[in-house]
Amino acid sequence: MKKLSLYIFLLLMFLSLSSFADDIRDFQIEGMSIGDSALDYFSEEELKNATVEGYSDKKFLMLGIWKEYKLYDVLQIYVKPNDSKYKIHAIAGVIVYSDNLESCYKKKDEIVNDLSENFKNLKKKDYGKLKNPVETDPYGGTYDLVVFYFIDGSAMQVSCNDWSEKSGIVDSVKVEVYSQEVVNYLNTKN
Question: Which of 43, 79, 85, 124 is a good FRET partner for 32, with 20 to 30 A between their CA atoms?
């Protein structure tokens, strides 16, 4: 009987802690959240004309959409190919910092501080400055990365990306939100 009582107590504690855990859907980028349909924010034509990137297996496509937003210069949305509803599985907001890396780092720190304040229950890990993957920037760019982990396996990360000049990519702050499915998928790529 004591074991059963202990088991029920632990189960109730776990359920109550889970109910207070932050939810990835609570975080929005330009009003969009994981699980929303991109069609609620963009026309199908805009989505079809977006810049498309993806891994060779094409499990997810990353659509880059440049237009005037409140906070970001470009949005990147992960969707599955042939999904007519364009369900958002991951979303990123990018702020471009051409020739102003110091402001890039300052903005990254400001965003991380805001997220830390608003998502106090999340595990946070500061990975510091890392080399960009060779396929992304074979010339040696770096990114300074902080990741927030949700209890369900989803994640949110903020980085200041210092791209090498040879790559032709502009330095930027990037705020990314990934569903558990995308986190699991990207972990198989590393």
Answer: 124
